Input
Amino acid sequence: MPVNILNLSGLDVVDFRETDTEYHVRATPKVISRLCPHCGRSNDTVAHAKRTLVIRDIPSHGKAVVIHLDVPRLKCRQCIQTFTASVPEVDTGREMTERLAKWIGRQSIEYTYAEIAKQVKVDEKTVRNIFDKYVAVLAKEYQRETPIWLGIDEIKLKRFRAIFTNLHGRSLIDMLPDRYVSTVTAFLASMPDKDRITHVAIDMWSGYRRAAQEALPNAKIVVDKFHVLMKANMAFEAVRRKIARESSNGAGLGLKRAHKLFDKRAKDLNDEQYLTVSGWLNTFPLLAAAYDLKERLYTIYEVKTPEEAWGEYLHWESTIPSELAKPFRVVKTAFRNWKPYILNYFDDQRVTNAFTESFNAKVRAVYRNGRGYTFERLRAKVLYTDMFQKRARMQEKVRVRKQKFEDVAMVRYMCLATMDDEYETRIQTRVVNLGADLSTLEQAFDSGKF
Output
């Protein structure tokens, strides 16, 4: 049997046996540390006894690997305490090799804790603890570019989790375990170079607004238009469901089956779909009035200035029939309570975070139907898998000190220095990480490879 069967340079293999499910390897360390862990000052130790540690290693050929490691027990002459000598490459606290701990951390992003624990034959709690520490290391190393336009939204995975996006880069920056105001505020405050954020797109939850106002006081808060228009869709749906419940002769079932067509914009319907929708609207005038209100709210977002938008909205509001006042009250409330933030959309930038909705839907499906993903594992895989990262070259202006001329050109240098001090502006190019690319993630979701 080769001495280096374990491929661990610090251990000598002295025996080996194989069972149906495990490899058992007896080994001795080539080098040990004699530093006393009790007093931390002395290498003055003597051999006291011998102990055999049972150490787990990376699985091989589908079998768990167990190392029976013979190490000495030492006695410190200074503090008269005994201890087991530490061995390089071995994590004695976890009773496994250091490389196994790293392997478990990497595998935990792909597989469930239970699957790994069964394969390695360790406790599931041990796997979770290793994963937590592994992700903490990744988080320290993970560097992302703070965006100019920041999107804040949430996704419901058992409970609401706040997500942050780079709106220019169409990439995911981070996902938080909750959306408490304190959690969101702390995250925003911790972002490097946060003063470069000029716009923050949010939905109509006051917690996001308060967090942004506190942590990013100079950023313009914009209510995402998708969430405003969604209120109109909700109002129309309430009308459609009410008519469906009160209808007879199969009309209710037909209206239910046609609900996806009503979700579409009228201009996006093909000829067959347009005939179907027109048929229902001609049959139910109240449904037609609600559909018209929904469609006309979209046209408000086609104007150019905040003043025009507010005027168009007031006209829209004045045309709501009394019988539709109740279902469309949610739209009126949204505009009255969030007016300045809704109208901020109509400045020169037209900031929107609507593209994240597709991502949110697919993440929910993966979380619901996937292979036992916890939120922590899902977040780690999304953020730290290299293939998902979106990188870009960024140019920026920097002020640098001018290089001085040699003595032969000193006169020329002095003339230039008096014209522009001793500094000049240069263009610097650097590669930045914009976060996890949403389009790449969606492709992974669709292919089933996530």
User: Anything to note?
Assistant: The CA atoms of residues 399 and 425 lie 5 Å apart. The mean pLDDT is 87.
